[in-house]
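Record type: ASSEMBLY
Status: queued
Input:
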Amino acid sequence: MTTVSDPTRTSAGVGVEKWLRMYRQMMAIRLFEENVNELYTRALMPGLAHLYIGEEAIAVGVCEALRHDDYVTSTHRGHGHCLAKGASPKLMFAELLGKEAGYCRGKGGSMHIADPATGNLGANAIVAGSVGIATGAALSAKTLKTGQVAVCFFGEGALGQGVLYECMNLAQLWKLPVIYVCENNMYTEYTHFSETTAGDIPSRAAAFGVRAETVDGQDVRAVHAVATDIADRARRGEGPAFLLCNTYRYRGHHVGDINREYYRSKKEEQQWLAESDPIKNFAEWLKSQKHADAGALSTIDSELRAEMDKAVKFAVAAPYPGADEVDQDVYA
Amino acid sequence: MPETGIREITFAEAVREALAEEMRRDSRVFIMGEDVAEAGTPFKVLSGLVEEFGTSRVVDTPISEAGFTGVGVGAAMTGLRPVVDIMFGDFITLTMDQMANQAAKVHYMSGGKWNVPMVMRTTLGAARRSAAQHSQSLHAWFSHIPGLKVVLPSTPYDAKGLLKSAIRDDNPVIFFEDKMSFKLKGPVPEAEYTIPLGVADVKRIGTDITLVGTSSMVQVALEAAVMLEQAGISAEVVDPRTTWPLDEHTLIESVKKTSRAIVIDEGYGRYGVAAEIAATIAEGAFHYLDGPVKRMGAMHVPIPFSPPLEDLTVPTGKTVFDTAMTLCGRS
Ligand SMILES: Cc1ncc(C[n+]2csc(CCOP(=O)(O)OP(=O)(O)O)c2C)c(N)n1
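Status: finished
Output:
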């Protein structure tokens, strides 16, 4: 069965403090990514990066429904997932600049942030590359009876990979506590998903008997509500779930993808920005509910700006790894 | 080698011209892969082809490397001539069953009755700060399998002539392009030509040492040769251009003349293309050698992201020069 989540259904029992944390987390991701873009344009960051701007509600809505020790796997567009699961901006920036202080000693870079302390099994630059890893983590959780859940984030491009279906089948057969979160931001690199995706997306998971849900990925409250449901359900041993989040990436496929009109119109971009900004809309809601006034939110924003500034400065000043690092950690 | 004084185009343009010419010549030839049509691939190598040939011959696929490679094999067996595009060489791992168990074996297993006239175009090479899953040079994997041919062009001229031959070949051919070479310019005649698979090219004539370079490492070998010349050592640079078929004769004859050899290939040195070529030389020119045949390749580590580390993993003109000086007893 596939269900579309009811937009009015929001988690009962979520208090003001948690709502404000979600706001802070989303804004932290936005500001982090803006700084990444800046580091790229100032030629301070080697290589490229794929920004998560516009999709913040998904990572935050899902991760706020998780325990600290739950597992996540991420993608090439992974900064948001890592931050939402608790990574430190300072150590992430350092990694993005290839510095020794970074999460992976500079060896991984933007697409490979991994951090056991926050349950982050690693971002992955192979589309669908982490589906097996997340499903395996769920097998461990079940076998070792740890009560953990594993969340596998991926873009709709991963729907093209057979390994996803092999793993969903296993997960349902073995009732594994794994949640497949499909972030449909409408485009793979430069191709609209309708040109590469036949049929109905959640039905693919439902065909295996996997619980399938669809949610507005721009609405952090809706994402959080359904994520809480399916995470609790998985934790109770009732099996895997598939969560389709409809969203939009506001920027290019990567930081260098500037002229996009050959694959999507400016008008379409502007419409998403104007109507569906997950942070702006959530801020409006917070104010309308009197959970926060404009002043309180802008205090959060400026605290975060200061934190990001400091983190960037730290990363820029940090040293590169020494040459002898190059052949360390090939084997355990 | 092309004559001098003719127009210069980039490596990417040479690839595009080869494809366009073959698609005009033979309506069975078509391209299939991720973001090949309007986007013309992330490297823009195919820009403009969809405008000329339309979306039925420049076909965007889902991110399904195993699937569309398999479709390529079947289409090749039954009357089409697919050029399958695998965006990064790292993703060939996803196509391995289709290539190694299907494409490579169909002709032999059917007693010569079915053919797979398919080309797979993909990339190799590090140095783009793209980390471990976007920087590998995995051409040895395919070179290992009987039934597959593997092409490693190093110049625009070679890229065009070899790709045209690959498309006309009745076997599965994998064509590896160095990502760092796409903007490399070189002379390419406007008139039609092809280069047969299995013929090496001597990129520079010399007498004291043979530097065998493949793909991205040909330029590195040439750089080293210039440095060696200043040190009074005359280096010959040989580019095999295909790892299979392999032009053993040209390699062995060069080393018989120079009596020293270094093989430089961007894949891993261990169990790699450099190892195989070094063994071929050692067997064929054993009595002429003044020293061991040296292999130089990617350091045996996953390619690190951090620039100062990544730079250590790939041979450079300087490291080849140093190795050559040692081999020549000069350091
Ligand atoms: C197996 C594989 N094929 C191709 C690529 C190249 N690639 C990187 S990102 C991307 C598009 C991914 O689209 P999607 O999964 O929807 O994620 P998004 O970038 O939209 O977040 C492609 C084709 C890859 N990294 N891995």
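Annotation: The pocket of thiamine diphosphate is lined by residues A 50, 76-77, 125-127, 155-158, 185, 187-189, 253; B 34, 63, 65, 87, 91, 94 (CB under 6 Å).
Annotation: The CA atoms of residues 253 and 285 of chain B lie 8 Å apart.
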